[in-house]
Every structure is written in C-alpha cells, then in structure tokens.
Write a structure and sequence with these properties.
It holds the Pfam family Erythro_esteras. By secondary structure, the protein is of the alpha/beta class. The protein is built from 16 helices and eleven strands.
Length: 420
C-alpha cells in the first residue's frame, strides 16, 4: 500500500476531536477492557495530559475503573495518592502533595495539569467509602533511596519487629552516597552487592501484609517500596554492564507493581495506565523486539490477554514542549518541528489538519504498514529530529490513536526556572 492510500484510509477510519465529548467514542471502544493504557509522545505536552485526564474521568465515572498508575516513582505518587483519597495523613493541599516530586524531571508530575486531575479525583472520592476511592500510584523504580527511607519510617511508626532487618538491609547501600551508578559499579566490578539483603526484606514484608493490620494500603506501600529496592538494585547493576537489560528490568518492574495493585484492589479491579508511548505501545510492533526489549504494553497484553487491554497512543504534528537539552539540565520550552515527511504524524496531518481520533484495530489491513512514529524524551534536541522516530506497525502497537495537530508545552509548578 502506498502512502496516498494510507492517508485515504486514515480519513475513513478517523473521527474529528473538536471537544472533550468526542472522547466518548473511545470510552465506548474500550468496552469491558480491564487495563486501559494511555500514552504520550512526550513528557512535556499539555494536551496529552489534559486529554488523558478527560478520558480517565469518563472511564472512572462510566466504567468503574479502580485506580490510575503512572510513569512516576512510588513514594512521591503515594503522597499525591493520600491527598486524592482524603487520607488522615494527607498533605493539606495539592501543591503540598506535589512538592514530593522533587526528582528531575520534576515537571512530569509537578505541573498544573496533574494538579487539576488530583483535585478532580479528591472531589470524586469525597463521598465514597475508603475501599471505593480511586487511587493515584507510581509504577517506576528510580526512587531506591527514597523508597528505603519510606520503609524505615513506616516500620518505625508501627513499631514493627521487621525494622532491624530493614535497617540491616539498607545499611549495605550507605557507602554509595545515594548514587545508583556508584553502587552499580561497585556491585559489578567489586562484587559488593546488596541483592541478598533487599530480597530477604521484600519476602518478609510480603508475608507481613497478610496479617491483620489497620492500614492495608500503608502495608502495600511498604511492600512496593521494598520491591523498588530489589529491582532498582538490579537496574543499577545492569546499567554498568550495558545492553538492554536495564530497560527490561524497569518495564518488568512496572508490570510487577501493576499486578500487585490489581491484587490489592481485588476481583474486578480495573486500571488506567499513563506512560510514554514507548512503554504502553506493544514493543513487538517496533524495532525494540529485534533488540530483545520488552515493554509494559507487550507484557500486559501477554499476561491479561489482548482482549482485556486497550492501548491508545498520542501524537502531534508540531508545537512546543517542556524538555531539557541534557540530563539534569534546566527545563526549557522547546519547539516541536513539523513532522518528517511520510512519518505517521505527517500522514495524520495530511489526512486532516485538525485534531482527530483514529481507530486502528488489530485486524485492519490498512494500518499494518511500518512507518516512523515520533517519540520525544525528557532530553530533546529539536535540531536532530530524525533520530526521534521509531519504526512502528501502528495497528499492532495500539488499538487507537489520538492526534493533536498543534500542541503546547505543559505548565510546570515553580520548582525550577523555566527557560523560554
């Protein structure tokens, strides 16, 4: 099929996205799916956040989804989770809750759009029982030291006998000054590994959660923080060795954390996942598979069945984005150039220079062609745009695609200076 035919088929299979009410078609298409995965082509685009928020509201209200799980660290997201659930120990304001997002890139969750979502969730939860409240959780695993501190704090507060074992396990990491790469090098080249200690602690906390304790979610939090410690330890060791193991460890961890949340919420639990397209779009539909890489989208389809999952990719033709020019650098409002000729985003634009929703479907033969699909990271160089495109079979990667013709940078909280 040539590109002109593909553009024609995009016109036939898409609907205009002129208002949030048009998202109802996606809610209907989700059907009885247990897992809905909502992507984004960058971590700094306002429209991706706001559209996912409006879609999530509808899924929660009309389809009874149990929680949101995002590409964020467990400890910081748990602070926002306590806020949206009106918990007794919750921060007083959403801004207070967002102060916990102090790890670079802070703007991913310390932004106006996430604050609006949190306020909506808090209001929605107000008159619901504790068991019915919709939560907000982080699936990621970069918070090794913060997670260890959270476990110690919780065990101290509950006078738990496991405290001694936890302190012993985490003392192993003390010489590395909260530097994951330093630990990884020592573990790899000097065989100074803390693996055995953190695995034993996780096993202990997993057994503890089945006891009769007053705050089951706090117990779950301690267990997941220990899981972060186990997998982050593996992640930093794998980074030093190189290759794709670190990616696979991270995405497998995120699915492990999701599985624990599904079990915690019980039979009939339903999850909405917010992550970058590179995580929620099935890796087998890209060149990642050839490199031996897996991702969240692939793993949840394999574990829950494709019929029980619905993946929605997001993309844009041009606009602005919040990103940085190197890791740890100040965030900037950067231009997003017009999509490369014959890329997926270019063909969506040529099919209609307006916002639209495209229903792909695994059996649709017209969208089985492999095309370049843009992915923007937290580190972004608009001048070298050609390297940001991932060869993708769109019908296999997603079930639907939300296209915004022109997007704008999200609005970060004043955590760090924004360069314009």
């Amino acid at each position: 099929m040539n590109k002109h035919e593909l553009i024609h088929e995009i016109r036939k299979a898409s609907i205009r996205l002129d208002s949030h009410d048009d998202l109802d078609a996606l809610v209907d298409a989700v059907g009885d799916a247990q897992i809905v995965l909502l992507g984004e082509a960058s971590h700094g685009t306002s429209e991706f956040y706001s559209l996912r928020m409006e879609l999530s509201k509808r899924l929660i209200e009309r389809k009874g989804f149990s929680f949101l799980a995002v590409e964020g660290d467990w400890p910081s997201c748990y602070s926002l989770n306590r806020y949206v659930k009106n918990a007794p120990d919750a921060p007083a304001t959403v801004r207070d809750a967002q102060q916990s997002f102090n790890r670079w890139p802070t703007w991913m969750w310390a932004n106006r759009e996430t604050a609006e979502l949190a306020e909506w969730l808090r209001d929605f939860n107000t008159n619901r029982s504790e068991q019915e409240r919709v939560g907000f959780y982080g699936l990621d695993m970069y918070s090794l030291w913060e997670s260890m501190e959270a476990v110690i704090k919780y065990l101290e507060e509950t006078n738990a006998p496991e405290l001694i074992k936890a302190k012993r396990a985490f003392a192993c990491f003390e010489p590395y000054s909260q530097e994951g790469q330093t630990y990884g090098m020592a573990a790899t080249y000097l065989s100074e590994t803390c693996e055995e200690e953190v695995v034993k602690l996780l096993t202990t906390l997993q057994e503890r959660r089945f006891r009769d304790v007053p705050d089951q979610e706090a117990e779950l939090s301690a267990e997941l923080n220990a899981l972060v410690a186990v997998n982050a330890e593996r992640y930093y060791r794998s980074m030093v060795r190189g290759g794709n193991d670190s990616w696979n460890i991270r995405d497998t961890h995120m699915v492990d954390a999701l599985n624990q949340l599904m079990k915690f919420h019980g039979q009939g639990a339903k999850a909405i996942i917010w992550e970058h397209n590179t995580h929620i779009g099935d890796a087998r539909a890209t060149d990642m598979a050839r490199e031996g890489m897996v991702n969240v989208g692939q793993l949840v389809r394999e574990q829950y069945g494709r019929e029980n999952c619905y993946a929605i990719g997001f993309g844009t033709h041009r606009g602005t984005v919040i990103a940085a020019r190197e890791w740890g650098a100040p965030l900037e409002v950067l231009p997003v150039p017009e999509a490369l000729h014959n890329s997926w985003e270019d063909m969506m634009h040529r099919a209609g220079a307006h916002n639209q929703i495209l229903f792909l479907g695994p059996e649709n033969p017209y969208f089985q062609t492999t095309v370049g699909h843009r992915a923007i990271g937290v580190v972004y160089y608009p001048e070298y745009e050609r390297g940001n495109y991932v060869p993708s079979n769109m019908a296999q990667r997603y079930d639907a695609f939300v296209y915004v013709d022109e997007t704008h940078a999200l609005e970060p909280m004043v955590v760090e200076e924004v360069i314009v």
